[in-house]
Amino acid sequence: IGAFVQQGLFNELVIYISPKLFGNSAIDVVSLPELKNIDSANQMRFTNVRAVGSDLRLTLVPNGG
């Protein structure tokens, strides 16, 4: 997934966030290279945010997409 995000090869991301803490042994969902500065971050915008039970479902698109 990280390579697709890094190269901008996606139209939309749907991310679920659960109110659980896993610690440092958790597996990364998206592996991206370290940012050198905030301006090099992938700019996204929310198109939908909704609760699904106790979780959040976030729908994001590239900023300008």
Give your account of this protein's structure.
There is one protein chain. The two termini are 18 Å apart. The chain is built from 1 helix and 3 strands, in the order αβββ. It has a 3-stranded antiparallel sheet, with no helix packed on it. It is mainly β. The chain has one domain (2-23, 37-62).
List keywords for this structure.
65 residues; 3 strands; 34% strand
Brief write-up:
This protein has 1 helix and 3 strands, in the order αβββ.
Structural class: mainly beta
What is the β-strand count? 3
Summed over residues and divided by their number, the pLDDT gives a mean of 87
| Elements, N to C (H/E) | HEEE
Kindly provide the radius of gyration, computed on alpha-carbon positions and rounded to a whole number of angstroms: 13 Å
Roughly what fraction of the amino acids lie in strands? 25-35%
**What percent of the residues sit in helical stretches (DSSP H or I)?**
under 10%
Beginning-to-end CA distance, first to last residue:
18 Å
List the helices and strands and how they pair.
Elements: H1 2-7, E1 13-17, E2 44-52, E3 55-62
Antiparallel strand pairs: 1-3, 2-3
